[in-house]
Every structure is written in structure tokens, then in C-alpha cells.
Amino acid sequence: MRESRRRSSRLIGIAAVIAVLVGAVAAYAVSSPTTAKAQAQAQAATPPPAVTVAPVIVKSLHEWQEFTGRLQAVESVEVRARVNGYIDRVAFADGAIVHKGDLLFQIDPRPYQAEVDRLSAEKARAASSLALARADFQRGRALQRANAISTQAYDQFRASEAAAKGELGSVEAMLRAARLNLEFTEVRAPIDGRVSRANITAGNLVDGSAVLTTVVSQDPVYAYFDVDEQAFLRYEQLIQHGGDEDITGVFMGLVDETGYPHGGNLDFVDNQVNPDTGTIRARAAFANGDGQYTPGLFARMRLVGGAAVETVLIDDRAIGTDLDKRFVLRLTADNAVEYQRVEMGPSISGLRVVRSGLKPGDVIVVNGLQHVMPGQTVAPERVSMLEDGETLEQLAQVEAAAQPQPLAGADGLPALYIDNARGLVALADRAK
């Protein structure tokens, strides 16, 4: 029995030694130059992935700042009655365009016409009394010169003439007031603009406390928006030290529009920063001859943020995301790709501004970003960063728009007016 166990142990030991030797031989075979060469040949037989690459675009561009605001009429008037009375009729259609002087409401004029007639009669009576007193005074003066009457009698003639003259003046003043009240029974539009609805209809008694309707001007229109302290200080430095750089151009887009298709001029900045919000109120003026802007609309505002600088632009397709970071794959001289972190700026006409990470002349992967890894060799196909020339044309239009144009319909509005706590900073209207 013991002999059998010894033989089994020997057999197990021999088997273990053989297994170790076989494993060593296999490892040697795998690591041999012949095998490594075969693997390299197999990898070489696999073609590198094809990607499209494009050189970055470099343009001299202005940087822009974006804000939000609300449109507001230059003039807004609450129309009230200046005399009491019953409304005879409403003479306008709700929401209509009206001109200064157009009739809006007619208040019953009969009581005021009667007062005018009464005072007209009083004026005639007072004029007659004055004529009589003046004639008596002239006769008395002649008699006084002839010493035919006493001085006291002469003074009475003179006083009677003066009293009659004063009475006539008083009646004339009351008559003018009565005629004004009669005129005020016709409630007319105080400005050109668009009228609201009639708050009080015909048959109602009104007085000066009731707002009958409102009228808001149409052209031009203001856009008010709040600028943060950092942006305000930057603009102030540009104004004071920017030389010929003009930053008065403001561009606006409404909620249903893409981009900022409407141009106007910055014309006012408030005189102090709101300590609660850390912002300062600014205002831009926009021509509104066709009435497309309605007061109260939300508006997106864009202002030139500084002087024109050489700017690197790329297509959004070339940008990868690594958690909270942005990167691109840059092509090296040996057709490999390398990981490059980038700091992104705003979007301009469909292209993205690169603040840092790329320089002029760099070539990056545009399509196929997800199919390659950093360090991998690729088969690059060079294309343009742009699919067509429209984007470049849009960039040119944006830059041309950076120089503000004359604001039609807003004559007399200055291009920029800043009144701050440290003094007045005024910029001449360069748009003219």
C-alpha cells in the first residue's frame, strides 16, 4: 500500500514538472521575435481610420457681449379728461394709429357752450359800461380844465372809467377760461402713436381722475437692459482710452428670431450702479417706422465688447466633451492626432470662438472624432472648416454691422450718453 502511494506521488510530481515546462515553452513561443513580427504585420495590414480634418479659421473680429432687455415707448401718455361731463362718443378704434390732435373722446359741450355764451354777453355789457365811463371821464376832464367841476367830481369820473376797464378785463379772462373748457370737451391725442382701448365708453360721467385711454409713441422705440459692473467698467475704459474705436452699435433679436437682425444705437447709460443687483441700466434706440416693435416685448441685445482682434474660429462639430471640459483632436506632422484642451467663447454666425488652446495654422479633426483615440495614426482628408461660403459672408456682415449706421427716425438722439458718479462722459454721434 505504501509503495503504491509513493508511485502516485512521483507520477503527480512528474506531471507538474511537465506542465511547467510546456507553459514556459509556450510563453517563449509567444514572445519570440517571429510572433511579435507577425502581430506587427497584422496591425500594419489594418488601415488607419479615415477622418476629415480642416485648418482653423482666423479672422479679425470684434467680441460681443449679450444682454436681455425690454422694449419701451419713448413717449407714453395717459389720456385724462380736463373737464367734467358725460361722454357723447368715442371717436377712435381700439388699438388704432393716431396722430397728434386727432379727436379721441367728445364730452357733452352744451354746459360749456352756455357758459361761453353767458360770458360773451357779460363782455358786451362790460364793454358798453367801459365806453360810457370813458366818455364821462373825457367830458369831466374837459370840465375840470375849465374849472367847471370840482376835483372830487373829476376823480369820480376817472375811477369809474378804471373800474369799468377792470370789469371788462375780468370778464374777458373768464371768457377765455370758458372757451378753454369748451375746447377741452374734445379730448384729442397728445402725441403721434398707437392708442389703447377706451377705458370709459359713451354715456359715462368722467372727471380728471379717470384715465380714458393711453397713447404710446411708435418711432423710435427704446430697449432698456441691465449691464453688469464688469462689462460697464470695460465699456467705460474703451470710451475713455479706446481712441477711434466705436462701440455705440447695438443689435437686437426678438424671441421668434434667430440672431440679431435689428440694428440701433446705444444712447443712454444711467448715472449709478444698482447696489442690490450690481448692474447699471442702459438704453438703446431703434428705428420703428414700420411699427414692428411693440413696447413691452422681450429682446436679446448684443453690443460690441472691444476692439477687433485676431480670432480663431472652428465648427462646433470639431469640439469634444470630456466631463466639464472641451477638447479637439489636433493633427500632428506624422498624421497622428493629439488631445488638445480648448477654452471656448461665444458663437458667431455658426462658428465657435476659441479663446485659448489653438493657434493659426492648426489642423483639427472635424468629422470622425468618436472613431479615433489620442496618439492614433489616421488617414486625414482635408476639407474646409465651412460647408459653404455663406458663413464667411455672414461674418463679414456682422463685422460691417459693428460700425453703427445712422438711426433713421430717431433724429437728435445721441449715439452714446454716459452720466456716472465720477463725471460726464460723452461720445459724439459718430453715426452721423
From TrEMBL:
Family annotation (PANTHER family): ACRA/E-RELATED COMPONENT OF DRUG EFFLUX TRANSPORTER, RESISTANCE-NODULATION-CELL DIVISION (RND) MULTIDRUG EFFLUX MEMBRANE FUSION PROTEIN MEXE
Family: Belongs to the membrane fusion protein (MFP) (TC 8.A.1) family.
Entry membrane topology: Lipid-anchor
Domain Multidrug resistance protein MdtA-like beta-barrel: from-to ranges: 220-303
Entry-linked InterPro entries: MdtA-like_b-barrel (IPR058626), MdtA-like_BSH (IPR058625), MdtA-like_C (IPR058627), MdtA-like_HH (IPR058624), RND_pump_MFP (IPR006143)
Principal localisation: membrane
Boundaries of every Multidrug resistance protein MdtA-like alpha-helical hairpin domain copy: 117-185
Protein name from the UniProt record: RND transporter
Entry superkingdom: Bacteria
